Amino acid sequence: KMEVLWLGKPGGLEWSLALDGCWLEPAAAVRSLGVTLDSALSKEPQVMQAAKLVFYHFRQARLLAPYLSPADLATVVHTTVTLRLDYCNAIYAGIPLRLIRKLQRVKNAVAWVLTGTWWWEHMTLVLHDPHWLQIGDRTRFRVLVLIQWASVHWGPTLPVHPTEAT
Questions:
Q1: Which of 6, 36, 91, 155 would be a feasible disulfide site paired with 46, CB 3.0-4.6 Å?
Q2: What pLDDT digit, counting tens, does each position of 65-120 carry?
Q3: Spatial distance between the Cα atoms of 143 and 148, rounded to a whole number of angstroms
Q4: Are 139 and 90 in contact (CB under 8 A)?
Q5: Local structure of residue 48 (DSSP, 8 states)
Q6: What would the pLDDT profile of 28-58 be if each residue is shown by its tens digit?
Q7: Are 51 and 105 in contact (CB under 8 A)?
Q8: Mapped to the 3 state alphabet, what secondary structure does 75-100 carry?
C-alpha cells in the first residue's frame, strides 16, 4: 500500500501522480510507524487516533479489574495504555492546549482507576507523583531527556567524513 501526502498550501490537493501505470492521489492524512500526519502537520489526527486507541485499550484493561490484584492491574494498564501515550510523545511538543486536554483526559481516567480516586475529585494531588506528570509536562520532560542523551553522546555516533577528520 502506498500513500502520498502533499505538504504545501491548502488547495494543492488537485493533482495526481502516475507511477508505473498506477495513479496516486494525495491523501488527507497518512500513517507511518504508528504516527498519523496530515497535510497541515497539525498533529490533530495523531492526537485523535492516539486518544481513541488508548481509551479502547483502557476500557479493555478495566474489564480485568475484578479479576486482578491492584499491582497486576497497574502492570496491565501501564503496558497497554501508558506506554501507548508515551510512544512518540515528542511530536506532541508545541501542540495546542485543546489537543493536550484530549490526551490528559485519558491519563486522568487511568489515574482514577489505578489510585482508587473518584472522577469528581481533583487530580492535582494524584498527578504530583512523577509517574503521573501531565501530558504537556511529560512531553517536555521526554524532549529534554532526548536532548540530554544527545548532548552526552549516549546516542548513536555518526561516521566522520575522511576530509573532516584531518
A1: 36
A2: 889 888 898 888 888 887 888 787 778 888 888 888 888 888 888 878 777 777 67
A3: 9
A4: yes
A5: H
A6: 777 778 777 787 778 888 888 888 888 898 8
A7: yes
A8: HHHHHHHHHHHHCCHHHHCCCCHHHH
